[in-house]
Each structure stands twice: as C-alpha cells, then as structure tokens.
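Hello Y.,

Per our agreement to keep a running log of every chain we model this quarter, I'm adding this entry. I've kept the format consistent with earlier entries: sequence first, then predicted structure.
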Amino acid sequence: MPEGDTLFRAAAVLHKALSGKSITGWRSPLPGFVDAKLDGLGITRVEAQGKNLLIHFDDGRAIRTHLRMTGSWHLYRAGERWQRPERQANLVLEAGELVAVCFNAPVVELLRPGGVERHPQLRALGPDLLKDDFDPDEARRRLRARGDQTIGEALMTQAALAGIGNVYKSEVLFLMKTSPFSKVDALSDAAIDALVAKAGELMRQNLDGKPRTTRHALTGGRYWVYGRSGMPCHRCHTLIEMRRQGLAGRSTYFCPVCQRAT
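Predicted structure for the entry above:
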C-alpha cells in the first residue's frame, strides 16, 4: 500500500500540473459519477491527507481517492500513450493538454461541498506527519490512547498517526531499537516522541521522487529490515524475521536481537 510520502509526492505533482486549470473533459465508469457535471470546473488545489488524495474544485466539491494496494495516479500529455489500458481507469480528468488518470483505485468518490470536512474517515485521521501543522503532542496523546495495543499495530493506525505503512513502521522500530510487540503502555513518552520524530524524518527524506530508502549505503539494499526476512541483520547479523500483526495481519519485519523486548 502506498504510504504517506508516496501520496504527498503524487499530490504535489498533480497540484503543480493542475492547480488553476479547468476541467475540459472527463469520464468515469463509476456509478458515483453519473451526472457529475465536472466540465468547466476550476481545480483549486490537490493535497494529501494521510493516505488519501484530494482534488478540490471551485464549486466546493472534491474528489477523494484512496489507492490501497492497487491504485495509482498518472499524468500524461494529451495524445501520449498510457502505461496501462483504459479499462483499468477509474477516473480520467482532462485539463487542456494534460490528462490525469486514476488507475485501479478501490476508493474514488465525489464529495459534495463541505464533504471533506464532514467525511467520517477524513475527520478521524490522526496528525499527518508531512503536514506543516503536524502536532507531535497530539500524536503522542492518540498513541497513548491505544496503550493496550502493540506499538507495531498502533503506528499503523491512521486515526492515531496518519501516513505510516508497513515499510516505515518496520524501519523506524528497527532504527529506534524497539520491539514491534511491546505494548504502547510499556514505552515512555520520550520513546514515543522519538519514534514519531524518526518516522517524520525518514518520510521527509523520501520526498525527492527517487526510490524510497532508509539506508544510505553503497551495498546491502535500501532498507534495514523491511522485506529482508531470512537475511542477516545489517547490525548484528542475526536473521531478520517477519510476523503478522493485528486483525489485518499486516507484515512486520524485525531483528529479534537488536529489537529484543525489555
């Protein structure tokens, strides 16, 4: 699933390309867009909220997409060949010479004026690590409220902290030498603050559009533990393990020695 940095970059690219332009054509096979009447609408801004991407129009409406595991936004010049077949397109927005296409997204919905502010999932989001107004105190409070959860599950809960997925969860916990199976209640405020700060630091370092990395090394790959089950830890050479966590069974990679629970 795309994580917060991916959505932030996608929103930034679409905002730079489309903001201030008007819709000159559009199409969608989705029932929620029947009689949508988007022609002529001005695009005021494109933004990310956690793992959601929002396109705002000058009549107060907005399009919300959540890409989950399969979706992506592409930007093309008019007449340029698409990288995917049109049958996979959920939504096509034309703005003069530019064409924005949303492929294979499980969630694509048109919100009425005021719908962003009222949307239950958007309202429930915790502080977004990549927003200028990110509030670390509120992030700590929301994580603390999930004290009986493991920290590996809590960091993935978007209502506590928006934007973190499997990659950053695993990498941050490794770098801070924290067991993903420790309960939130077992961690000090300082430890929670450090985890949150490191997550924001890593995500901000990956906003340049280059392949995501949490290791800056010439050899050994881009990640410390993520996707490295059965391979030696870069620090202690113990074999990295992977376990499923939570009801959703999300994958967590960790070093059983460097991240031994205390």
